[in-house]
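Exercise (ungraded).
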Amino acid sequence: MRRDIFQAIADPTRRAILVLVAVQAMTPNAIAEHFDIKRQSISKHLRILSECDLLVPRQEGREIFYELKIDKMKEIDTWLDQFRKIMEESFKQLDEVLFTLKNKKK
Amino acid sequence: MRRDIFQAIADPTRRAILVLVAVQAMTPNAIAEHFDIKRQSISKHLRILSECDLLVPRQEGREIFYELKIDKMKEIDTWLDQFRKIMEESFKQLDEVLFTLKNKKK
DNA sequence: AATTTGCGCAGCCGATTGGCTTCACATATA
DNA sequence: TATATGTGAAGCCAATCGGCTGCGCAAATT
């Protein structure tokens, strides 16, 4: 059972759930109302999202409110950082090339 | 056949390929050397990454160099923006609450 | 106490995934 | 021209995915 954050957000329903819950913590039933999917299937998604720490359940009587753990989202951002860094490097090298060319012109 | 960027980066091999290619455009054979996977399987991954515009193939004789299309990566960032916005709103509301509390104290 | 409500779990099932092997084909190279 | 090399496409297969239904259980309501 792979259970990383990237596999979690691969599913469009799960991404939509995250957006919903981001605005306001919600119960499985309330979430299910927004989809053409049985409540149990939503539950399965919530389990996956919880297992990789994107959501956190908070019990309140017989209801369970699922809340977004925004910090976990930052992991995606961190992954993107690699590319920002690499691209920055590329531009730096490009700048050097351009600088060299400019100097040669003189 | 789902083919969106989130499904593309769900696979760890594909994420590694993206990082490799980000540094420098590479041929399928060169990429395959970095994995314990047959070249043909890598080809399949390259096809998927190309189909959702994360990579671009550049033919050079009988070799094909796959290059990262960094712009496409920004789509992930754009998706994350939703959450940044929502969180910003939450903090704004929290600030208001704190402000009200402070005033009540007086 | 009986019923309703909110929920998760287990198990079924067709579709998809991500490996693999075998092949065909075009471009170097001998 | 014959051979070696770089590549993608097709098809196989076990594992996983994402729906579904049918439970059981605890909390709330009657």
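Further reading is listed at the end of the chapter. For now, observe: DSSP finds five helices and two strands in chain B. The CA atoms of residues 25 and 67 of chain B lie 5 Å apart.
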